[in-house]
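Shall we go through a protein fold together, starting from nothing but its sequence? Label the sequence line and the structure token line clearly, so we can match residues to local backbone shapes. Would you write everything just below, so we can both look at the same thing?
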Amino acid sequence: MKYLNILLILLLFSVSACLNKPNTATSQTQAKAFIPVKALIFVTAKDTQLQLSQIADASFIALNQPNEGQICIFVDPARTFQTMVGIGGALTDASAEVFAKLPPAAQKDLLSAYYDKEKGIGYNFARTNIGSCDFSSDSYGYVAYNDTSLISFSVVHDERFRIPLIKQAITAAGGKLPLFVSPWSPPAWMKDNRSLIKGGKLLQSCSQSWANHYVKFILAYESMGIPVWGLSVQNEPMAVQKWESCAYSAEDERDFVKYYLGPTLQKNGLAEKKLIVWDHNRDLIYQRASVVLGDPEAEKYIWGIGFHWYETWTKSGMQFDNVKLVNDAFPKTHLLFTEGCVEKFNLDSIHNWSLGERYGHSMVNDFNCGTVAWTDWNILLDETGGPNHVGNFCFAPVHADVKTGKLIFTNSYFYIGHFSKFILPGAKRIACSSNRDKLEATAFLNPDGKLVVVVLNKTDEKMPFNVWISGKAVQASSLPHSIMTFII
């Protein structure tokens, strides 16, 4: 028995040693550092001919300890954060109608410019509207008056312009283009104001019919070869607009998701669709998240929180800290920028440099606050900033003069491209720090192992700086009002 006890002790000691032995392969993988060698540098800059232009193939040199006089962007690939889903724009009725008016050559050029990964800026994400929105030529719906059973449901309206554009965009993107869908208003008869416009609220008695309406739309589009990746509950649920709109308090949206939309998606085999709440500005995003995600029975259906940038309308500033707070407080819920554009279109301002800088500033900071996807508004508008059935004319990255068939590229297109062309789905954001407020930066590690660093300069100053990684640096010069992308 004495010898048996000794053998048991030795056996237990051996098992314990094996269980506590470090995983050598994992330790070596974690210890392996990214060694920067070269950087391809792309630049867009004001008052130059540089538009997503490659200007250098530069080598890294040793720089062990930068001093305080050196301007640096510090990048640490060992510290990773959120995983990128995609970057893209909205395929609205307005974009589709303008696209249909273009000659075939211009249509081909537009699709290539947006969706070709080599010739264009590689959009890989998209949004479209359920029913009409302000960027439609008129107000419309999919069901007959008071048809609570939705027997009359049909998307035949969309088959003329929008569905053909979406299909062509999917093809141009290589056959895959994750698409999320958003309603601006339920049918008028489902609302207490009996109107598609000027807010109003969903009638409690119509909650199930409205939940069924999302399912009808998704299945209709998918039956036509357009996969739907996700959906938001309501575009701008706190805005009472002169166009299509519907108001939901935080409690309204929480309860609609909990009792109707979430269960209805599950019952119809659509539980994998990514459900997004809020879909409005950064100003109230934390309050909405705390109420909706604070309820476990609602939270279990929700994949993400969407937000817009129209804080100039609310006079509250950009408020990136609100996005970061949601990310910190609810780390399991994904953040998506679901809509943004520059409002009050003026053809004389179509080449105003501030258009693109607003995109660059928002994208750098939204990504640094944890955002996983970024969606611009209309991909294409005409020379008036429309069509728009309520006169809410806006800027897009690309406009078309439908009289001449000419495409007009604003600098917004190139600023977005500094992100969308190079940061791939599946990329991990990595630690990136600037030691000067005048240079804003973000960085990602792509699935192919390459690093992408984006540096924004909104000032009138030319600034020499270093991109520093693990004791090595590549030298560059940031031109006034410029954006740079480094592929390392």
Residues 1-31 have pLDDT under 50 and may be disordered. DSSP finds 13 helices and 21 strands in the chain. The first strand starts at residue 38 and ends at 45. Residues 114 and 120 are 5 Å apart (CA to CA).
